[in-house]
Amino acid sequence: MGRCLHHSMAVRPLVRRTDGPPSAERIAYTACMSDETILDKQLAYYRARASEYDEWHRREGRYDRGDEHRRQWLAELDDARESLNRLRPFGRVLELACGTGLWTGELAAGADHVTAIDAAPETIEINRTKLANPRVRYVLADLFEWRPEECYDLIFFGFWLSHVPAERFERFWSTVCEALAPGGRVFFVDSLKTQQSTATNHAALTEAGTVERVLNDGRAFRIVKVFYDPERLTACLAARGWDAHIETTGSFFLYGTATRAPAADS
Which pTM was predicted? Predict the structure, then answer.
């Protein structure tokens, strides 16, 4: 298995920078991100949210902002899917944070096989029932602890990078590198920072690195949410030996491909 070089560069949070002393928002971000219990809360949130997660994707219930909004949202998702499908055939695929299967079926349609990993058994069960595809193998694992046992031609993660705490960014990408076969590619899609993406009863989004999310039954959870700027994320990945090409769909999403830069593993 090819291994990536582990860069010595310190990880810096990809949040808005200001001159002078740290703002209260940035201090809160640092304090919150140093508390690992937020990852337990994040997992608890996604386990509890499993049965209602697809409402976000379909723009239903608290995410319903009208027909025009829904048409634009779905059109932009289609743009990201088309970019993903231009990478077919996918070969051996690893999907990190597979969730309820919004992307797993798309991946399976162009893959030899898919290894789909998630930490929430509830979402894996929904995914498995929805797809019933023998080419998909499910693995229940904590993505912050999981290590690959084989290499993959394509590694995909949808709406997951923004839930990786800033101080775990470099370790996460090192794990991705360990799992990537020589010549392999990474594809990811995530949210842009826009209030129109989240539920109508959610608080205003900030760049603090965390957000409070509320379920349909009113339970509230604080989770990690780091919003990325395509240009800065490209530069950050380049500093860690990745050649990334990142775009936006317009209003709602960013997506990108990444490969190991030729000099990174030489």
Answer: 0.87
Q: 171: buried, middle or exposed (CB in 10 Å: 19+, 13-18, 0-12)?
A: middle
Task: Kindly tell me if the per-residue pLDDT of 7 is higher than 50.
Answer: no
Structural domain includes residue 67: yes
CB contact set of 227 (below 8 Å; sequence gap of 6+): 162, 191, 192, 193, 205, 207
Phi, psi of 209 (to 5 degrees): 95, -5
Please list, in sequence order, all residues whose beta carbon lies within 8 angstroms of the beta carbon of residue 180, skipping any fewer than 6 positions away: 2, 4, 151, 152, 155, 186, 260
pLDDT the model gives residue 36 = 72
Instruction: Point out which residues pair with 257 in neighbouring strands.
Output: 187, 245
Please check whether residue 185 is in contact with residue 244, taking contact to mean a CB–CB distance below 8 angstroms: no
Tokens of 121: 């058994």
What is the phi/psi pair of residue 4, to 5°? -85, 155
C-alpha dist (Å) from residue 173 to 73, 138, 231, 244, 245 = 28, 21, 18, 12, 16
Domain CATH for 69:
3.40.50.150
Q: What is the pLDDT of residues 112-169, one digit of tens each?
A: 999 999 999 999 999 999 999 999 999 999 999 999 999 999 999 999 999 999 999 9
Q: Structural domain tally of the chain? A: 1
